[in-house]
Structures are given as C-alpha cells and as structure tokens.
Specification:
single chain, alpha+beta, 3-stranded antiparallel β-sheet
Length: 162
C-alpha cells in the first residue's frame, strides 16, 4: 500500500495565502496531484469566485483553539465520496474506497450481500439500505493497521471522528 498523508487544516487559504480566521467558513477539498490526493483549504471568497478543480470538497468552519470540532460531514457526503471513487483504478483510491465502505457499513448505510471472485480479485456486493441498490467494492485485503491508518486519515480529511 502506498503511504500518503492528508494535512489537518492550516488556517490558510491555499488560493490566496490569506489567513482563515477562527470561526470563519472555508472549503476543505481533496485535490489530485502528482504525489496523490492532498488536502487544500480555501477561504469562502476564493472558492465562490474561482471554483477550483477538486476531487471532492466539504464546507467547514475553522474551530477556536480547544473548541470541540463540529461534524460538517453528513452521511450523504460520505456516500457521495464513496460513489465518486467507484471507477478509480489506482490502488491508493481502491484502498480508500474500501475503508469508506467499512465506515458506511458501520453506519448501517451499506449492508453486505455477498462476495464473488473476478480475475483473482475479491469483490464485495453491498446493498444501499433503504434504496436496495447494489454497489460493489474491491477488497484489497488490508491489514488491521492499514485500515486504522486510512480511517484516521479519512477522519482528519473530513474533520470527523470516524
């Protein structure tokens, strides 16, 4: 598995370099770079005027020091991120999507249906609860440490306790 790190919010707009003040709304985003997915934060003004090209994004507020983080990511955002990764073939993104599937299963949004083997790959069929739509995810056979590391990174990206 390739190693990658997603930074915590730095309190600075990537587009303008201006400081994002505590309590100010900003947009967190994942951007595809040559090094892989990277987190970038943009102040609301820059975001609204420039609409930078990103892989996915979420709106948040920079918390005061010591203030408990508020969850700005809802289940729909997690599901949209999961679906956005569906056609990706890079191992890093397959791993990321698999861990997102585990999180969505824990939240009872996805339910395991069955496993099938295709081209020496284990593919899980999952049902979206309430919709009865089937989605598939490749099981990359991550070890417990890899799953924990990716879960932590997803939590940092989304500023949520995953």
């Amino acid at each position: 598995m390739s190693e990658w790190e997603i930074n915590k919010p730095l309190g600075q707009c990537h587009g303008t370099g201006k400081k994002i003040e505590y309590g100010q709304e900003y947009f967190g985003a994942l951007v595809e770079t040559e090094e892989g997915l990277q987190r970038r934060d943009f102040c609301a003004d820059y975001w609204e005027s420039r609409k930078p090209e990103v892989f996915c994004y979420w709106k948040s507020k920079l918390p005061e020091p010591g203030q408990k983080k508020q969850l700005f990511v809802d289940d729909q955002m997690l599901m949209a991120f999961f679906e956005r990764l569906e056609k990706e073939t890079e191992q890093e993104k397959i791993n990321f999507r698999f861990v997102l599937a585990l999180i969505l299963m824990r939240k009872r949004i996805l339910k395991y249906d069955e496993t099938r083997i295709e081209n020496d790959r284990e593919i899980w069929r999952l049902r979206i609860v309430g919709v009865k739509q089937i989605v598939e995810v490749v099981n990359p056979h991550l070890d417990e440490e890899q799953v924990e590391q990716l879960s932590s990174q997803i939590g940092e990206i989304l500023q949520a306790d995953i």
